[in-house]
Write a structure and sequence with these properties.
This protein is mainly alpha-helical. Helices cover about 80% and strands about 0% of the residues. The chain has 16 helices and no strands. Helix 4 packs parallel to helix 10, helix 7 packs across helix 14 and helix 10 crosses helix 16.
Length: about 350
């Protein structure tokens, strides 16, 4: 169970980035779509949970230890390079999120904010996967507790949910496809990180437990942020980080607590995606260090692009590629079980 908790913290640290904790992602992919958005939260959590289970199961049964080997196993050789590019882009997005956060709240120069974030990431990533696990084990429990506690303050606005279900709030049409895109872009970034954690898995039972626990925690945290957004308005939703403005209504204490959440979420996702990109050079320490320095310098300049622009333009692209990868995973599982059942003479297919 101890290893399952370690995996949970790393996965949540990867998923809960600046866009999630700030409320921007939940607003764009779910909140804008009213009741369909609420359904979408459930759909995306289930997709992510199933993906975690399938990836760990495939890697565990076939002794796959790296993402490149995983892509070859799926029969999608070029996927590895594509995903590594997206991991790097997400690393840049997290740095941009940190910069936007400091600029919005403290009017700190965006370049200085990016430099601060890059320095923190650099010294953590120097220790490769060990640094990622240690930081996640310390930071993520705090992050989860703070998000839940802050959201509980907003539980007295149940009427807002009634307005959504009664269609009294004007929302965009659609939403289900957005939830699928949201889950798939998260999965495409998450899978390389999941594979590096395979050494913490010691049985098929632990794979099932890991997937279920992660799905539930993702669902709870998504609704916590959604719950906070119910106190916002159109003016607040246009901000780079709307949740920060919302929690100000609770007073200085809660604002300061959520500022910690934002900082932790940006940091943990940045190092997770950063390591996901750098992992292919881990065996060569000198190359690993040179690439780390290079992407750190580039991140300072790329992060000067608006955080919202990066989220709006790049995440849907990630989502489409993620859908392709999920389809490939399910296709591989279907082929494997069909072949097994043919040999055994059975007619049903058990995806578990």
């Amino acid at each position: 169970m101890k290893n399952i908790i370690k995996i949970l913290f790393v996965i949540i640290g990867t998923l809960v980035g600046a866009g999630f904790a700030s409320g921007k992602e939940i607003y764009l992919f779910f909140f804008e779509y009213g009741i369909n958005g609420i359904i979408g939260v459930f759909i995306s959590s289930v997709i992510i949970s199933i993906t975690i289970y399938k990836v760990l199961k495939i890697c565990y049964e076939n002794k796959i230890v790296d993402y490149e080997h995983f892509c070859k196993h799926l029969g999608f050789k070029n996927m590895s390079n594509i995903v590594h590019i997206f991991l790097l882009i997400t690393f840049f997005i997290m740095i941009a999120g940190f910069s936007s956060y400091l600029k919005q709240e403290y009017n700190i120069n965006s370049i200085l904010g990016s430099i601060i974030a890059v320095i923190m990431c650099y010294f953590t990533l120097k220790n490769n996967i060990n640094g990622l696990i240690k930081v996640s084990n310390c930071a993520i429990p705090v992050l989860i507790i703070l998000i839940v506690i802050t959201s509980i303050k907003n539980l007295n606005v149940i009427n807002n949910y009634n307005n959504i279900f009664n269609n009294e709030i004007i929302v965009k049409k659609g939403g289900i496809m957005q939830s699928i895109l949201y889950a798939s872009y998260n999965c495409i970034l998450l899978i390389p990180v999941i594979i590096t954690l395979l050494k913490l898995i010691n049985s098929k039972k632990s794979i099932i437990i890991t997937a279920i626990i992660n799905g539930l925690v993702i669902l709870i945290l998504s609704f916590c942020v959604y719950n906070l957004l119910l106190l916002g308005d159109e003016k607040i939703f246009k901000l780079e980080m709307p949740i920060i403005e919302i929690v100000k209504k609770y007073g200085t204490v809660y604002k300061n607590l959520y500022m910690i959440i934002i900082g932790l979420s940006i940091f943990t996702t940045a190092i997770s995606t950063g390591y996901g990109f750098l992992g292919r050079w881990e065996e060569n320490k000198n190359t690993y260090k040179r690439v780390l320095i290079l992407i750190s310098i580039i991140a300072i300049f790329v992060s000067q692009i608006s955080f919202s622009i990066l989220v709006n333009l790049l995440y849907p692209v990630l989502g489409i590629v993620g859908i392709i990868e999920i389809i490939m995973i399910l296709r591989k599982v279907w082929f494997f079980y069909s072949k097994t059942l043919q040999k055994s003479g059975k007619t049903g297919i058990n995806f578990i």
